[in-house]
Amino acid sequence: MDSIRHKIQLLPKGDVHSHLHLSARLDLLKAQYPHLDLPLPQYYDGFMGMMEFINQHIKPFMSSSEKAIALMDLGIRSSIADRVTRLEASVDLNLIRLFGNSIKEFIEAVEGLKQKYVGVIDFRPEIGINKDSSIDLINGLARCCFESGVFYGLDIYGNEKGRDLSGFRQLFLNAKYKNLKTKVHIGEFGGPETIEEAIMHLEPDEIQHGIHAVKSAKTIQMILERGIRLNICPQSNIALGAVADLHTHPIRKLYDAGINLTINTDDLLLFNASLTDQYISLMEQGVFSFNEIDGIRLNSLQ
Asked: What is the rounded average pLDDT of the residues 141-151?
């Protein structure tokens, strides 16, 4: 398996479900900030447990625009270290607070990161928006991002339960008008009905997670008919308790159902599993063969 790991390590990969300010490798972070104390748990107490960890350990560290940029820069460098050649990563619009609430400075910072790595990695930043955000507030900010030409996509995320997504429909329509790829986090904790509602309201190009579609033939059919890709993050799902382990993870059943899917890191800083790590784990546990993993890898680059 060591030779297979080396082979996979050298292969170009796509990570298309990543949150940029949470995507640094722990060893790279500690090398740059040796006094930083970041006690990563193996498991979080669900989504809210993860948010509590972020609020307690990440937000106090990320206390300025300079630190936010440095953390995002480390995320890109971490991808490069794992031979990720295509990185689609959301940049949380809430980070604007660190830029004096200036959308201009926020956009310029993202543009600076893009320019820094031209020719090194195909970095495609997405506008990341929390579902709890005020629609009226974010519409204006998002419009500036859409028109900047800096962003390639839109991704909304946050707590899945009890969220009415219909208010985001116009935002998604505006993104599509500007030819941005649209994504929504759904179906990691919520049932298949939440996925169906998201599809009906938002018509996303891709779904981040979507693993509980496996519970409904109707939901799977909706995904297949619309050609929606699921960008799945197995280690994230396990660490957050959405599934117990790789053996019970529905990724294999979704794959066998013919769904277009990818494997991704989500938050490398929190879950400490690179794409290479996850590819190897899925093969070691007998979930996928090398050829199947290679096909999924190639899919992430398209």
From this structure: 96
